[in-house]
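Entry for the shared binder. Reason: the reviewer on the internal report wants the predicted structure included alongside the sequence.
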Amino acid sequence: MSLKFRFFLTLLIAAALAVAIPLSCRKERTPIVGAEPETPYGAPDDTMVRMMPYRLTPRASEARKYTRRTESVKKFVQKNWRNQQETLSFLIAQDGKILYEHYQGTADKRRDIKMAADTPLHIASVSKVLTATAVLELIHAGKLELDQKVNTVLTDFPYPDVTVRTLLNHRSGLRNYAYYLDVKGVWDKSKVISNQEILDLYIKNKVPLDYPNDRRFTYCNTNYAFLALIIEKLTGLSYADAMNEMIFKPLGMKNTYVYNHETDRKKIIPSYFANGTEIALDHLDAVYGDKNIYSTPRDLLKFDMARYSPTYLTPELKKQVYVGYSYEQKGEKNYGLGIRMIDWVTGQHFYFHNGWWHGNTSSYVNLKKERVCIIALSNRYSKKPYRVKLLAKLFGDYPFQMGKDDELE
């Protein structure tokens, strides 16, 4: 090999290294809390926070009761959903083992799509449980703090006292965007509104808090619309891509996605009034975080099991999820961090979240002590999915009052 050729080869290698080293370093950079991403939305890097799948081990003491409980659940469903025109996507599992599932009705009448295990339905406010989980994972990874002021992440956020925690537990005092947009002149309802446009309106119009931060509980969708913006800011991804990378894809939730108003509105399973009339989309249908996740009971079971993993949050952080924060008024109902709860004076604790958007109603029940997951979804308006909480009585001492159609055999 000539000296001239060696010199030329050395120059080529040096040039290649000069390009390769900065690229590899760029990949290893971690996001800075509150910093603008280099691009609005980019591909996830190696620092992306991801949930890990987890498989529960069935307990022998419970396995002997599976058959008896399954028969009781089956009779409960048959009794409450006698009308085959009603839609239902239902699953109940213990220790990760599906005891009974049932899919009923026509999910999409125009396309004649029957309800099935892989039919994704709008889960309405059960979406908040998943949004909260993504935020908690970012806290667990050290990219955010629970009591961090929101304006340190969303720098133009006009409420200096509001924290991540008070968004999660609905104690921020923020006005509900759905009601605010009803005020004459605030928004042209012929146009759909986005999460960022809601924040821009609140900044521009100097919308006051309904009450001081952390003064009392008021369930408010605005809290979770802004939490979705925080997820976007910290990950550098759209909310849809962040949820896919952090939760859906790692857990194998293949039939779960965040609705995109531009690309999905002609593809989705629609919803119906109780009389079977299809419900049209409106100006609020592009807002996500508080709603707009489509999923199935089987996918939500995968999500539920992952929250039992020893790698899911620290014990201290997990403890803060499942405590009530609102005791201004006496009562059994309360709210943690993205989860509703009932705390009976007798000591029992019941964790759940319901949802309602257009004709979609949903219920997610998590019996932590008994490791039971109950999921009921419907896209034809009915309050019946909320009744599945009564099935908790098959597994523990939960003092619900029973109606005639709700008795368990």
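Summary line for the report: Confidence is low (pLDDT under 50) at residues 1-40.
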